Amino acid sequence: MATSTGDVGGLAQFGHDSWGLMLLKAVLIFVILMLLTLFSIWAERRVVARMQQRIGPNVNGPFGLLQSLADGMKLILKEDLIPKTADKVFLIAPAIVVTPAFAAWTVIPFGPTVKLPWSDNHTALQLTDMPVAVVFVLAMASVGIYGIVLGGWSSGSTYSLLGGLRSSAQMISYEVSMGLSFVAVFLYAGSMSTSQIVAAQDKLWYGLILAPSFVIYVISMVGETNRAPFDLPEAEGELVGGFHTEYSAAKFMLFFLAEYVNMGTVAAMATTLFLGGWHAPLPINLIWDGANSGYWPVLWFFRKVLCFLFLFIWLRGTLPRLRYDQFMHFGWMRLMPLSLLWILAVATIRTINLNGGIDRQWLYAAIALGVVAIGVLMFVGEKKQSEAAAREEAAEFDAFAGGYPVPPMTAAAAPRRTG
């Protein structure tokens, strides 16, 4: 049966819903994600069109809202082609990608505990929760990588295989920095449960007091979802179409659906962990006592999620695509060291505060000096590399010295003499 009282909090409020209520929640999550995907596709085409001084979809339905639905029906009804060299895994790879994308939403809190309209029972606006809910979301994202790798390998195409390997390397690299950005939240909230992390932000959002973690997560979530300027799996000029080159019709639609659902997932996680979840933003919660009760928090939650989705669209319409070496270098040599140093700083501050504390002026000054020193060292290294590259380019080279035009050979590619 559903929870009979509204004062049960924490993880104790989950696991008491009836099977019918749990099924209703699961169906509502599925419907919400499908509608969110259709709206995201339409909004992306309209917003990018406005940025490029075009009209965008405006024929099917009011303001073109049914264009995404029409495209989905077209993909479902199209002929499904399977390459002769494809493996049997080719058929199940899209399901491996899309299933974890939906499963991750089972631990996302949409709102507080509310009274059911048809009875006196209460239930949380969340399907379920667990002590390691955030780790569960990361695990679901990791399972989706298997679908991408298997999709590229099973296509029987060299370009699809290269696209799958590059996509998996990209997602794994930025998933590490994404997970590291969560550690500071765990230290402050004292829990990995999504509902308890939201409850811990009733006074102050972690996006403010843990701003470096928030920035690292926002960058990592763009790389994790393969979106511009990190949309290397879709680098048509390099790998045709990436890991899904050989997919068509409904199977391609599942890959497309998983990408947009994952966009919503990382946006919901950013909202949950850093922007107070379903809590009303300032100054609404100060002037209205009922802003965080009832079903109103669902509105605040999705407004924050839509802001992140607009950020995805804005980045796609304004920034050019990075090179693969630049992208991987930034993830491993910039984001990960900064994440580790920030975790060390947060852990030090929390330990000092819990043990009585010291003069925070000296602590903040030491942290500021450390950040400045790290920045200087990073830029000095970049400057030395740039100067070395400039000297190499400035070196005189005669392309016709051997009678035929040949490109210059770098020091790394030059053959080594032995003996």
From TrEMBL:
Keywords: Cell membrane, Membrane, NAD, Quinone, Translocase, Transmembrane, Transmembrane helix, Ubiquinone. Signal peptide: none annotated. Pfam families: NADHdh. Its EC number is 7.1.1.-. It is found in: Cell membrane; Membrane. It is a multi-pass membrane protein. It catalyses: a quinone + NADH + 5 H(+)(in) = a quinol + NAD(+) + 4 H(+)(out). One of its GO terms (cellular component) is plasma membrane. Its main location: membrane. GO terms for molecular function: NADH dehydrogenase activity; oxidoreductase activity, acting on NAD(P)H, quinone or similar compound as acceptor; quinone binding. InterPro entries: NADH_UbQ_OxRdtase_su1/FPO (IPR001694), NADH_UbQ_OxRdtase_su1_CS (IPR018086). It is an enzyme of class 7 (translocase). NDH-1 shuttles electrons from NADH, via FMN and iron-sulfur (Fe-S) centers, to quinones in the respiratory chain. The immediate electron acceptor for the enzyme in this species is believed to be ubiquinone. Couples the redox reaction to proton translocation (for every two electrons transferred, four hydrogen ions are translocated across the cytoplasmic membrane), and thus conserves the redox energy in a proton gradient. This subunit may bind ubiquinone. Belongs to the complex I subunit 1 family. NDH-1 is composed of 14 different subunits. Subunits NuoA, H, J, K, L, M, N constitute the membrane sector of the complex. This is NADH-quinone oxidoreductase subunit H.
